[in-house]
Specification:
single chain; 317 residues; mainly alpha; 1% strand
């Protein structure tokens, strides 16, 4: 039996998590609370990217509408708060119920296709909800909606920045652990086998559509949780959360960090958002600079940043 931390990728995982755990300490010492806000945003988007990686990296499902579920989570907070419901558990329950219903409906339709057809159908569904959000004038319409109060979760006070930070950190840790266990389980092996050769998996007697649909719904639920956290962080929600460009950013995070690796989406989210923050401070035309940098990274590291490092245990993470 090999000691797990002999793996360079495992060391990257540990170093990344230790860095995230120490951010509040460093931010407090430097009297720079902005760093906490920045890394809270990074972890929330990393959670959404981790959810996408489950179906993209291990299921071969390139969803270009995954931000739809980010928006559902955010609007669950915004709409219920405006209606006078501040209970965070109600927000979470509503977000998950709506997400499961939408994911089942859209998944049953889109998962009967593959390739470009799947990409376009997921994009179309996301755009439908994007324009639905724009039409909800009583909830801000295309200008979005300010959230007057953060979700109330009893003993967990989201108004306390350090508490909120470590709540997000704990959820990311649980998601990393849960996704790893899921991928290594029988369910995960069937999902990966379906990505490699669906016809063979069907010949072996596996109902591949059910497995892919289950993975799609699980992935959507994790993304909805990230949307709920994002709405509480920004105290704002907008149809922009569901835009196709947001889904594209999630795909970039997964590919940049290392598609099909456990830690890759977290590393990709950190790399993309820190690079964005750095370049935007230098020039208003930061996107012109950022584009070639991302292309260069992808060309040099075809398996992403995490993919550059070997995993002695084998497999994808």
């Amino acid at each position: 039996m090999q000691f797990p931390f002999r793996s360079p990728r495992a060391w990257l995982s540990v170093a990344t998590l230790v860095l995230l755990a120490l951010v509040p300490v460093v931010a407090g010492a430097l009297d720079q609370p902005f760093y906490m806000t920045l890394f809270m945003r990074i972890m929330i988007y990393a959670l959404a990217a981790l959810s996408l990686n489950l179906i993209l990296g291990f299921g071969g499902m390139v969803s270009f509408g995954h931000a739809l579920y980010l928006g559902i989570g955010a609007y669950a907070v915004g709409i219920l708060t405006q209606l006078g419901v501040a209970n965070g558990w109600v927000h979470l329950g509503a977000a998950l119920v709506v997400t499961i219903a939408v994911a089942l409906f859209t998944g049953v339709i889109s998962l009967r296709t593959t390739g470009i057809a799947f990409i376009m159908i997921t994009l179309a569904f996301a755009q439908m909800f994007f324009f639905l959000g724009m039409s909800l004038k009583q909830f801000g319409g295309d200008e979005g909606m300010t959230i007057a109060q953060r979700s109330v979760f009893g003993l967990v006070d989201l108004e306390e920045k350090v508490v909120f930070y470590y709540l997000i950190f704990a959820i990311v840790l649980l998601t990393l652990y849960g996704s790893r266990r899921l991928v290594e389980s029988r369910f995960g092996m069937v999902l990966r086998g379906t990505m490699e050769n669906e016809r063979r998996m069907k010949a072996l007697g596996f109902p591949t559509l059910r497995y892919r649909l289950a993975a799609y719904v699980i992935s959507a639920c994790f993304c909805a949780v990230s949307g709920l956290l994002l709405a509480n962080l920004t105290e704002f929600t907008s149809p922009d959360y569901m835009a196709w460009s947001r889904s594209g950013e999630l795909i970039v995070m997964v590919v940049l960090g290392g598609i099909g690796t456990s830690i890759g989406p977290l590393v990709g989210a950190m790399a993309l958002l820190l690079l964005e923050e750095f370049l935007s401070a230098l020039t208003t035309h930061w996107m012109i600079v950022m584009g070639p940098i991302i292309v260069l990274i992808v060309l040099v590291a075809k398996r992403g940043i995490a993919g550059l490092l070997p995993d002695l245990r084998g497999g994808g993470s």
